[in-house]
Amino acid sequence: MPELPEVETIRRNLRQGWGETPSILGRRIDGARLLWERSLAEPGPAEFLKRISGQTITEIGRRGKFLVFSLSDDWLLIHLRMSGDILIEPSNAPVGPHYRAVFELEPDYRMVFNDARKFGRIWLLQQPQSLLGRLGPEPFDEDLDSATFHRMLNSACRRLKPALTDQSFLAGLGNIYTDEALNRARLHPLTLTNRISPVEACRLLASIRETLEDGIRRNGTSIDWVYRGGDFQNYLRVYGRKGQACPECGTQIERIVVGQRGTYYCPKCQVPAGEIRI
DNA sequence: ACGAGCGCCTGTCGGC
DNA sequence: TGCCGACAGGCGCTCG
């Protein structure tokens, strides 16, 4: 579920601390427990627990939707998928029903990987490129200018929404922020990528960045029972708003299915590239 | 090189 | 009330 803004919010909180919760930078991992072994992707449980014990957290980064922990000797990567979250709490707090992995942090805190749906995954790797190397560029990468983005779009013939949620095309967008960015850019989710003009590519890239920046500024989106304290859900233009008025023109938002994902858009504002507007 | 279908999981919600 | 299907912020795998 978490997309780039939610993962970035978690990263910043872990790094800087928030409220009563301290930063975990510089903390030593005293030991770990796996409460659901399949949350661990690599290596096996025995080697994982042995290798991670005694390592210090030296930095916390993000690449796409991956949380990237630099440890003294390894890289710890966590992908939250649909329902994952990271909690920091005192070691003696009660163990929740969806705790999948617990990392004891000296002297008296722990970091918890909480994940109701069990889709999230944890890796402990000597070098992270095997995972991160498959990702497309970061949306905020300075080298990603609109001409480059236009070239990326034109090098394939596919529909815009599945392309934008494809992590090997661009890293970080998911279902919510893609729909929001497409609405802001006034592009239909089924537009073919090779029919996007340079001007539209420029507008789309700017819309993606503005949408993600807004999401980060609001500390992410909190929907349903997974609540993280963000409030971007109060500023959504189209996502989850079927039948409600488009903020630009008042037309009712429609919901279609694209690539097996619920997709929300304004049928008046968002017209496929190349089509004549009425 | 695509997209569709499905599996992985648990939980919530609306309709009957 | 209880049951049942639809749906959910993701992604990897097959298959055509």
Radius of gyration: 20 Å
Terminal residue distance:
37 Å
Domains (count): 2
Give the count of helical stretches: 7
Indicate the CATH class of the largest domain.
Alpha Beta
Unreliable spans:
none
Q: What is the structural class? A: alpha+beta
Q: Widest sheet: strand order?
A: 2-9-5-4-3
CATH architecture of the largest domain: Alpha-Beta Barrel
> CATH superfamily of the largest domain, please?
MutM-like, N-terminal
The dominant shape is globular
Percent of residues in β-strands = 15-25%
Number of strands: 11
What average pLDDT do the residues reach?
95
Order of SSEs: HEEHEEEEEEEHHHHHEE
Strand count, sense and barrel status of the largest sheet are:
5 strands, mixed
Describe the structure.
- The protein is an alpha+beta fold and 278 residues long.
- It folds into two domains: 4-132, N-terminal domain of MutM-like DNA repair proteins, CATH 3.20.190.10; 146-265, Helicase, Ruva Protein, domain 3.
- The protein is 25% helix and 23% strand.
- The chain has a five-stranded mixed sheet with strand order 2-9-5-4-3, with helices on one face. A four-stranded antiparallel sheet has the order 1-7-8-6.
- Helix 1 crosses helix 7 (198-217).
- The structure holds a DNA duplex (16 and 16 nucleotides).
